[in-house]
Each structure stands twice: as C-alpha cells, then as structure tokens.
Amino acid sequence: MSEPFYLKENDERTLAVINNLKELRDALKIAPKQAIKHHTSNGKNDFAIWIHESLGMGNLAFKIACVNGDEEKIKQKIIKILNKELMKNDLKDLMRKFLKMKSF
Known about the structure:
Blueprint: E1 5-8, E2 14-18, H1 21-30, H2 33-40, H3 46-53, H4 58-65, H5 71-102
Antiparallel strand pairs: 1-2
Helix pairs in contact: 1-5, 2-5, 3-4
C-alpha cells in the first residue's frame, strides 16, 4: 500500500491525511494558501513527489511538478490537472464495466 500524504499548513499542523488523488483534490479545494506554500516553496513540490513515489504515477507527477505561480494559481492548476486525471480514470472504469457486460 502507498504511503499517505500529510497535507500540512506548517511543520506542526496537519490538515489532512490523503490516500488517493480524489482525497488530494478535495483537500486542495479547501486548503489555505499557507498549506500550498508549505508544500511548494524553495523549488520543491511535495504533491508531485508523493504522486510519483507513493502512487507510481510519473506522468501525472511531471505535470504537477511543472505548475508555477502564486499559491492560489498553483492550487487551481493542480486541482484542474487532478480533475482531468480523475475523469480519465472514471472513463476507464466505465469502459471496463461496459466491456465486462458485453462479454456475457
């Protein structure tokens, strides 16, 4: 099982424990700017690192790592990227279910 992501506002305060992309997207929607800054300052991007290392999603991690701007722009861009990825995953699941139904 993958390691959870600890969304933090600072080194002491954890806002959420995240286990998948949907939880990350939902937590980012309500995360304060300080949390985004904590995870993306000084040239790092903890979101991209977690997606790559814990979820094994290198292509998605690369997209997230390329996001820049102020905290609000970073937050909105990451949410948009996650929404696209989650929709793509939902479509794949629907196709699998459909193909499974057609095989009977």
